[in-house]
Amino acid sequence: MIRNNNNYKEMLKNLNNKFGKVNAVLANEYIKVYPETAEEHRDMQKFCREEKIEFYVIRPLSERPFKIVMKGLHRETDIEEIKSELAIALPEIEILKVGQLKNVRTKSPMDIFMIELKKNGHENKIFELTHFMFLKIKIQNYRKPPGATQCWNCNMFNHSSANCGFQTRCLKCGEDHRTNQCPITTPQENPKCINCGATGHIASWRGCPLFPKIKPTKGQGVNYPKAQREFLASQYRRQENISYSMQTQKLIPRQVELNSRQESEFNPQTGSREIGHEKEFLGFLEGAKVMYDTLKSIPNLIKTISELPMLEKTEDMFNHLIKALGTVANSVSNVQ
Ligand SMILES: [Zn+2]
Ligand SMILES: [Zn+2]
Ligand SMILES: [Zn+2]
Questions:
Q1: Residue 199 CB partners (closer than 8 Å, separation 6+)
Q2: How many Å apart are CA 192 and CA 32, to the nearest integer?
Q3: Closest ligand by atom to 175 CA
Q4: Which ligand has an atom closest to residue 170 CA?
Q5: Which CATH class for the 62-141 domain?
Q6: 3-class SS at 276?
Q7: pLDDT one-digit tens code per residue, 100-159
Q8: Is 0.90 topped by the overall pTM?
Q9: Name one Pfam family in it (predicted).
């Protein structure tokens, strides 16, 4: 990706002179250049740097690192130790980078580590790890947090500093150094945005008119922010906890309705009789639901009932049930 400057023609001419016919496509404020080989890709980057042609690299998927997160290690674990222990545990994998995730608000390190592996055909082996450094751990695919990637080198968007060939620009003063190298260390009263030029905010502020807005990813639904995701997850969990009877209450009548419609269509003559049966069945279901709810609120009663078929005589069954009901009556009166 080459920045589409006014001198783009000159830039493309230079590239063509150097590399023969290059395949270049206009893409909004950039020009996409497709090198033919990995070697040409490397040479072009070198050439662009030398000629001060600003660019960033879009890596093919196969070249991008394989990222996972490891949960369960102590938050104070040394990153170098993780690297060396991983190399011993799984010699087939190639570790590119290990980092620790930080809480966005408090900036405190979390007990989640991100590991980048080279896609060498063995990277999936990492999922075989269940215990590491004496602890039970969990390996999950890393999912990029929602929102735009902002480059640490140039502070523009949609690429990372590792792929950046743009001029370095400081977020605070716009000069040719990384933000963390800036001589300004105190918060500025009225900062100037290096991307849109307005005062009052810096270019990493989400409200900046040039800060890319979050778009839902195709086919993946909306990317919820973390807090919202957790909230939604807890909602789902709660749904799982809804009693079986409440779920059947929702499901069974609809099912019966469906069946009844089908049956009355297929069986017009006996329709009324069928519907009568269904009403009876529905009534039975409702009764069963009331009974189930009642039973559920009384500890041990379901167990007692499940034991009934083991008894031979009806008399024994009644006695068993009455005994259980007796203890239930006691416990209920105790509660009251
Ligand atoms: Zn950049
Ligand atoms: Zn600066
Ligand atoms: Zn701005």
A1: 190, 191, 192, 193
A2: 30
A3: 2
A4: 2
A5: alpha beta
A6: helix
A7: 998 878 889 999 999 999 999 999 999 999 999 999 999 999 987 777 889 999 999 989
A8: no
A9: PRE_C2HC
